[in-house]
Amino acid sequence: MNENQGESDRRDKCGLTRRGFMQFMGVSVVGASFSAAAITKAADSEKTETVLQGTRLTKIRLFINNRIYSVLVEPRWTLLYVLRESIGLTGTKIACGRGECGACTVLIDSIPRYACMTLAVEAEGHQITTIEGLMDGEKLGPVQTAFLEEDAFQCGYCTPGQIMAVEGLLRKQPDPSMAEIRCGVSGNLCRCAAYTHIFRAAKTAARYKTGKE
Amino acid sequence: MSKANEIYYTAGLPVPETPEAGAEPSFWKQTHIVGKALPRVDAYERVSGSAVFPSDIKIPNMLYGAILRCPYPSATVTSVDTSQAQDMKGVQAIITGSSPEAANLKWKYRNFETSLFDTHVRFEGEEVAAVAADSFYEAWDAVRAIKVDYEVHSFVVDHDKALDKTAHKVHDGGNLISEDTYERGDVKKGFSEADTVLEHRYETQAELHTPLELHGCVTNWDGDRLTIWESSQGVYAVQSKVAEVLNMPLSKVRVVGHYMGGGFGSKLRPGKYTIISALLAKKCGKPVKTLLTREETYLCVGNRPSNTMELKAGVKKDGTLTALEFQCIGPSGAYPAGGSQLVDWLIRDLYKCENVRTISKDVYINAGTARPFRAPGHPQGSWALEQMMDCLAEEIGMDPVELRLKNIPDFSQAREGNPPYTTTGLRQCIEKGAEAFGWEQAREEVREHNRKGSHIKRGVGMGACLWVVGGGGPPSTVVIKMFRDGSVNLNMGASDIGTGTKTVMAFVAAEELGIDPGVIQIEHADTGTTQYATPSGGSKTVPTEAPTVRNAAIAIKRQILEMAAEDLEIPVEDLRYQGRKIVSKSGPDKSITVTEISGLKKRGVIVGVGYRGPNPENKTVNPFAAQFCEVEVNTRSGEIKILRFLGTNDSGRVMNRLTYDNQVFGGIVMGIGLGLTEFRQLDRKHTGKLCNKNWHDYKLPTALDVPEDMTSIPIELDDPEANNTGAKGLGEPVTIPTAAAIANAIYMATGIRFTKAPINPIAICRMISGGKE
């Protein structure tokens, strides 16, 4: 596989690349914070455009892990900040706040997204899944189980993001190749560098999810 | 339900003998739990998202702290105007250098004392003022609204220029912090005896730790008692520094750090931010969370210093090293921090050589101070020495593996009195590594491949190392509590920085007590409730804490046996602890189960205290390692692909095979960063500022950069002398020889000797097109 082919494969099979994702999300963030305008997508998908003031508290409804949360937010607050500091879902981690590391990866409509590059007001009307949402009560989900068994982490801080990236990958591609796995977690930095075990865990998780074992 | 069946793993398995009072425990010949590839005891918390890291702490009324930092590398703060910031929405407190709570506080960098907010700013990112506000956003709004006037001075950020006469003086006394010389034998004589003498200059770039969890803390006062949740490698180190700066009794400073998201040396101590957060909390009467931003962590929480090294080496045709002469210079940064510390250690101690001389200079520059970074000094020294070894081997027509094998010492040459190593697996690491890697065959195949004339070239390379410490040592105290149902609680002060410390300690207690590791509850890393421990780092945590845990478990067993002796009316010497049961050695029909022991039932809990004993006298405990790799270089694009890596480690006993291999692979990837991708880019000419203070411009190896083929081979030598578990450190040696091994492989692929790290595609293209800068 030559390099260019690799790049296009990465896009096709894993959704957006880290950089592509940056460009995509970056535009909306800039639009919102610089023009102080954001479109609120009401849960009932009414398409009324409201101009919000950057620092004035606004009530929004977020659909997270099959629950509705009504929260007051400043329109400039990121989804990450609201998840962690308003709602208390601290499984989603902050590590760079600027779309570089993937520690804050959540699923928005089943696609892995950086919560630090998503404004909370933008996330209204979408299905948000965090690491806590992969649990069945206190039972671990299949990707979490695979990470546990393969020791696919060290300090554990990037781990929720890695797990969400793998979860997102497997929802799109239930039987990924090694190249697809590597690309699927390439937007998630692990300074401890547990990558070898993360790759193994992704393979194991695929088996668990498809019920092959 | 039989609870006991869940507690004990010992269905017919022998539990280690209990040594008599005062006697040392004997070496484990065979283990049942220790060494197994079992998941971590805290894996559930780490994968479920329920592990609470300091960053995750949120308590009622909590505010957010933010710090204003100087944007210049060298300046004087002439005025700070907080009037506008003071009135902003959400702002609850502002402190500056002239605020009464901060004005008299001192901060020490080693023995160098400065003010908490020093008006003479010596690096970009030094603290100027701080704000606490209702939200993170409002705190930063206020920081941006503080007006500061600076008188900007000239600067020096290039360590090679720091000692020039015209260089800006970071401190009045000049930029030389120290010049250390080491000498043995006679290098002049050594060089005269050599058949080949080579002299090369090597450079490594400053590397930044950038652990995933940001540096930071939550601080809260209950009257005169301060509680700090800090992302830290050592809660007692944080407690000690905070108590010193705030002039408080240690007992009134409680530091908690149950989980922490990576440190690599940068979290061995707190930062000024910890003190600032505490001051803000005091001023507001509310808890304050102060997490640094990612950019701040690039500026002010440490680095592996950049080093410039010159190495001259002499060798005889038969491979005998006759002399090594080494000079290095490295920057501490703006305050003393050991800019060239331990860079020369491998030159002094790794390979047999009678004549060695090293000179190490530590200098000031206007940049953030260094902090220990995984194997301080060693990867830099290895970059020079391991490349030089390959050059020498080529000159005398010897295989690089063979040259190293010719020069293996069995004692530490650089230490006073030449103490022998308790064990040295250096030879086995190199031999078994070469064998498993298929070294000779790989070299043949690569040569064959490169003869074909493709622009994709291949190379294999290797390197070896030792780590200067890694034997651990006192002090450490561990307490094990046994409840009346036989389950236990293990209490230790050490942090688990991601290496699996908690898991290893649970395994040790389980092994000794015959208890399932899953039922061992661990309390750790809290100065208020757990025992004293030194920070986790330097590959010394397992060899320090594991023997201590074993001693605590033995203390429990001794007490249980005493109590059983009373109940059974049999002398204690005749009893054997077998896990669930205590059995008479002379008459196995006489026994009592632990839960029936009246003393335990009555007391409810028994407590076993373990202390870390001394290390062996006149012996050195060091871990050793070797690494082998194969790379592919695209000589047109300069791209480097690492095809495979193999690491062999003599770290004594393997305590958990899963976490062991994880360390090996992780260390190699970090070494790939040093060798190929990471460098701190300071603007030397115009501003002295850091140009790449984020993960886009400062590139870590990602999932796409790690080789798919990674192998870890433990060289497990029995080391009963090292400590009562036989384990040596692992976390540092796994990253030491990596960069040099890659450089050696790239040399084989390209015929170009890259002496400056990192070797990136730009460097490859530049050298291939004629070596022009």
Describe this structure as you would to a colleague.
Chain A has 213 residues and is α+β, with helices and mostly antiparallel strands. Chain A folds into 2 domains: 3-133, Beta-grasp domain (Ubiquitin-like (UB roll)); 142-210, Orthogonal Bundle (DNA polymerase, domain 1). In chain A, 41% of the residues lie in helices and 12% in strands. Chain A contains 8 helices and 5 strands, in the order H-H-E-E-H-E-E-H-E-H-H-H-H. In chain A, helix 1 (3-14) packs across helix 7 and helix 5 (142-150) crosses helix 8. The longest helix of chain A has 17 residues, at 18-34. Chain A is elongated and about 50 Å long. The relative contact order of chain A is 0.15. Chain B is α+β, with helices and mostly antiparallel strands. Chain B has 3 domains: 7-36 and 472-611, Aldehyde oxidase/xanthine dehydrogenase, molybdopterin binding domain (Aldehyde Oxidoreductase, domain 4), CATH 3.30.365.10; 54-153 and 210-300, Aldehyde oxidase/xanthine dehydrogenase, molybdopterin binding domain (Aldehyde Oxidoreductase, domain 4), CATH 3.30.365; 307-470 and 619-768, 2-Layer Sandwich (Aldehyde Oxidoreductase, domain 4), CATH 3.30.365. Chain B contains 20 helices and 28 strands. In chain B, the strands form 7 sheets. Chain B has a 7-stranded mixed sheet with strand order 3-7-1-14-11-12-13, with helices on both faces. In chain B, strand 12, helix 7 and strand 13 form a beta-alpha-beta unit. The longest helix of chain B has 28 residues, at 541-568. At the A-B interface, helix 3, helix 5, helix 6, helix 7 and helix 8 of A face helix 2, helix 5 and helix 18 of B.
In short:
Chain A has 213 residues and is of the alpha+beta class. Chain A has helices spanning 3-14, 18-34, 79-87, 120-123, 142-150, 159-172, 178-184, 195-210, and strands at 58-64, 67-73, 105-108, 111-114, 127-129. Chain A has a five-stranded mixed beta sheet with strand order 2-1-5-3-4, sandwiched between helices.
